[in-house]
């Protein structure tokens, strides 16, 4: 994917998505909190310090790799099912790379997936993210909003989350708005215009093969 929601458009789109989603309530329990005032997110300062960075690897690793990704991005799913697993085995788990995952929101579905992934805290985040990416072609095409959120709920339950816990996470409108503001801050800071995008020791790089990542990381390790 190459387009990101930006500025006021992002806030309006997410607000409309959550509000429209709540309006569909009937036989199925749906998130009920619209993002009050989200259309004015650019004019209202939001404290994003409450958002937890999702990190793998040694805190003092010599190389830091930040990934910007969307749960609805097929290229991101491909990266996580291939290159990421090799990077984790060879660099992250061995203490050479500190890996930071940051969500990007193209649409409300990616935001809902993010809220499910974060629902279990840092301990479950990467495991749930793996399930979300593995099942992307199924849940993202499940149908309308009702079907998609039900499919995401199933992923959450598969990861061991309780139903009440999932509902609380999905209905947390304040958290949703804060996540959108956090994403906008990060994307602006690093000039993110597509996903997946990466920041390697402060330098922006594009998605590429494992061998290309390896060459770049090894160069950083060699100093």
UniProtKB/TrEMBL annotation:
Source taxon at top rank: Bacteria
InterPro entries from the UniProt entry: Thioredoxin-like_fold (IPR012336), Thioredoxin-like_sf (IPR036249), Thioredoxin_domain (IPR013766)
Keywords: Isomerase
Annotated ranges, domain Thioredoxin: 24-154
Pfam (any one): Thioredoxin_4
Alphabetized GO MF terms: isomerase activity
PROSITE patterns in UniProt: THIOREDOXIN_2
Cited function: May be required for disulfide bond formation in some proteins.
Family as reported in the entry's similarity comment: Belongs to the thioredoxin family. DsbA subfamily.
Protein name: Protein-disulfide isomerase
UniProt source species: Phaeobacter inhibens
């Amino acid at each position: 994917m190459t387009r990101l929601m930006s500025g006021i458009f992002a806030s309006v789109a997410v607000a409309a998505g959550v509000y429209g989603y709540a309006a569909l309530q009937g036989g199925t329990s749906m998130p009920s909190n619209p993002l009050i005032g989200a259309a004015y997110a650019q004019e209202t300062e939001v404290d994003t310090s409450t958002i937890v960075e999702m990190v793998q690897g040694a805190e003092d690793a010599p190389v830091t790799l930040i990934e910007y990704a969307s749960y609805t991005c097929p290229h991101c799913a491909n990266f996580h099912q291939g290159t990421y697993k090799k990077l984790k085995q060879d660099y992250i788990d061995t203490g050479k790379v500190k890996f930071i995952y940051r969500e990007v929101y193209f649409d409300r579905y990616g935001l809902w997936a993010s809220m499910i992934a974060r629902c279990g805290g840092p301990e479950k985040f990467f495991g749930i993210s793996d399930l979300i990416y593995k099942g992307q072609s199924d849940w993202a095409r499940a149908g309308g909003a009702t079907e998609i959120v039900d499919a995401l709920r199933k992923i959450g339950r598969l990861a061991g989350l309780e139903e009440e816990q999932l509902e609380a996470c999905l209905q947390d409108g304040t958290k949703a708005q804060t996540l959108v503001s956090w994403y906008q801050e990060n994307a602006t800071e690093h000039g993110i215009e597509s996903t997946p995008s990466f920041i390697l020791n402060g330098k922006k790089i594009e998605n590429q093969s494992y061998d290309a990542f390896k060459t770049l990381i090894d160069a950083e390790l060699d100093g």
